[in-house]
């Protein structure tokens, strides 16, 4: 049972006596804000155990099936059309794009309730479902782990998340009006079939940008830039450079400086992107960037 002593708010003494995550005395947003404030105010003189303890509590909250109140579903991906990834809307609402999605889902639930279109005749206001069509469950798992704990691990451990399954593929309305206990929670042992592939920095970059997690976005941009080499620079330019200017500039400068190692006699790296909407503009800009350097070389 989780225990929370908030009698002295300046200390924020929180402890977890067991991994069983029934957070029943305080709302998730209260715990989240207290932990975030506590972590932000820790000085270098304080022991690192404080940060570790608070991170552990947030990890417990992330996988707690008793307090979650919002579910993301991936009905566009047939492999995961009956999978739900759960979280706390009060925590996600710290980020405006996610807050907007939550507000939209809340409005739709209110409309269904007033019109009486749902199967049960009532929508449980504490349980919302948001369908996502352009992000993988693995990417969202990594994003959620960062939001809750500040940790980045692109290898997904499903045991750290609240993941459920449903009998029907029509999961967007599968639990309307039904209590959380009705949901079938996936087994999370070592042999669990719910193993997700590793997430790339590019995937995480797009997700963090989309959902307004700016601090993670910056770290992803730096990681993508650090990974650029002759074998992937063209792919990076066309897949994420068209959206993120810093990455585009770095990739183009790399191509201009090392064109000989990028374009080989038996390999045409630009061929796959001939029909890309930015192909012409990128090639023109590469020529423009190359021209001054060529002039300097000729003059020498």
UniProtKB/TrEMBL annotation:
Coiled coil: none annotated. It comes from the Eukaryota. Residues 68-156 form the BTB domain. InterPro entries: BTB/POZ_dom, SKP1/BTB/POZ_sf. SMART domains: BTB. Pfam families: BTB (PF00651). This is BTB domain-containing protein. The lineage of its organism: Eukaryota, Fungi, Fungi incertae sedis, Mucoromycota, Mortierellomycotina.
């Amino acid at each position: 049972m989780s225990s929370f002593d908030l009698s002295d708010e300046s200390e924020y003494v929180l402890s977890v006596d067991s991994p069983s995550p029934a957070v029943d005395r305080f709302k998730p947003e209260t715990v989240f804000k207290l932990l975030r404030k506590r972590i932000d105010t820790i000085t270098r003189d304080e022991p690192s155990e404080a940060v570790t303890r608070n991170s552990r509590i947030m990890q417990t909250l992330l996988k707690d099936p008793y307090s979650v109140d919002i579910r993301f579903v991936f009905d566009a991906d047939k492999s995961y059309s009956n999978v739900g990834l759960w979280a706390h809307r009060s925590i996600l609402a710290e980020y405006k794009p996610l807050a907007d999605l939550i507000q939209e889902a809340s409005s739709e639930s209110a409309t269904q309730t007033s019109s009486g279109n749902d199967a049960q005749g009532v929508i449980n206001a504490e349980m919302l479902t948001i369908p996502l069509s352009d992000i993988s469950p693995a990417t969202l798992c990594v994003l959620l782990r960062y939001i809750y704990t500040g940790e980045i691990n692109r290898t997904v451990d499903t045991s750290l998340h609240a993941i459920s399954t449903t009998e029907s593929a029509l999961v967007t309305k599968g639990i309307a009006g039904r209590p959380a206990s009705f949901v079938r929670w996936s087994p999370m042992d070592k042999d669990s079939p719910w193993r997700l592939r590793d997430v790339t920095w590019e995937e995480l970059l797009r997700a963090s940008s989309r959902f307004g997690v700016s601090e993670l976005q910056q770290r992803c941009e730096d990681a993508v830039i650090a990974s650029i080499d002759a074998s992937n620079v063209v792919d990076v330019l066309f897949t994420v450079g068209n959206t993120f200017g810093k990455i585009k500039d770095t990739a183009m400068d790399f191509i201009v400086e090392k064109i000989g190692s990028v374009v080989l006699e038996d390999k045409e790296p630009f061929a796959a992107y001939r029909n890309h909407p930015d192909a012409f503009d990128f090639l023109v800009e590469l020529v423009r960037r190359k021209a001054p350097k060529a002039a300097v070389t000729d003059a020498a």
